Amino acid sequence: SAPWQGGGSSFAAPRPRCCSTPRLLWCACAFLARVGTMAALRSLAVLVAAASLIACAHAGDWPACQQQNTVVRSGGQALFANLQGYGATIGCFLDDCMSSDKFVASEIESCTKVCFSLPECEWWVWGTEEGETKCWFRTGDSGREAGEGWISGHKGCNPPGTQVLVMGNSECWAEGFGYVNCCEAKFGPNGNAQCWDGVFNYDRCCFPKDEL
Q: For the whole prediction, is pTM greater than 0.85?
């Protein structure tokens, strides 16, 4: 340990005990043991601040984080997902909103909500195709290029308070009953028959109450 000077005397900083931990924690623990507790804590504080700045660069304040006149083409990173469960009904790839990377939306916020809800989505795009405004979703931005009138954003670029969307109509779901169990394409065009009765049915439960 490096000696610490104070009040005319020197002492060795205590060495923290390194336990069995994941690699990141192990490295932090070893770092503490190597350079001394107080110095390490100051250094780690700097690293945390730097990480926060990097995160803010991706997220930023809405709507300042929007990347104007920028489009992210597919570039092999188009994200095909079940968008119907989030309320997409038209403008999907081959008219199949259960497997699409795009849909017609009336507002840019719809792009941010869906991307935020899709685990694999990293970028959303807002633009016009054949006279209709649409959202597109990407797993990366290798297809980035300039595009007049287009707007793109990272997953973290969204209005304050944005939350993960519930697939289907949340009023229908209870323990043992949910979108995955009742509405996925594998159950056919009417969903899982075991989920329905005289009150609950595919049309009521497998689409959100509000369209995007």
A: no
